[in-house]
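Researcher: Structure for this, please.
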Amino acid sequence: MADVRKRGAVADIEGTLARLRGVVTARLLRDDRGEIKEVHVLADPGRHPKHISRDIESALFSEFGIRIDHRKISVSQTREAEQAAPAGMKPVGRVKPVGRVEAKFARLADAWRSETAHLSSITQKAIHPAYQRIVGMGLRAVPLILRELQREPNDWFWALEAITGENPIKPEHEGQVVEMANDWLQLGTDRGWI
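Model: Predicted structure, token format:
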């Protein structure tokens, strides 16, 4: 069973689950022994509940070593976002970063830039630990990445797609960093991320 007291604080686990794509918020219910009895998740309608449930199982095990039966996971999806989003668009609310998040992002972005400046391979740049930690920040990082693209177009496209699950880059703009950045900035403006 999954004893939360031994494998991670409830707030840490809920925070990790809330960073998963499509998840708006997550809550754990524990039994008297501290084991996870149920996981309740509120999600946007952009992903199938079964996929969200699988992501939760994987995150709990990979991050905290906790195995949980998928039948203990309850996924509810919002309807308001479904109605508010234009056809074919995944609804995502505005994310306002706080000072601590901005500082963490700046530190990681500086490390990534300085430690990968000599690399030409985007694959090598994208697997750098600082870049991966930025991706792990989830939607909180999106406005910060978009601001970076406004300031100086760079190889942030893989991170943006990994976090948002979207790719607004037009086929004719592939390989043109400034145009690719403009495509992302337009999506960011349309969604209220910047």
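Researcher: Any notable elements?
Model: Residues 4-84 form a domain with the GMP Synthetase; Chain A, domain 3 fold (CATH 3.30.300.30). The first strand starts at residue 23 and ends at 30.
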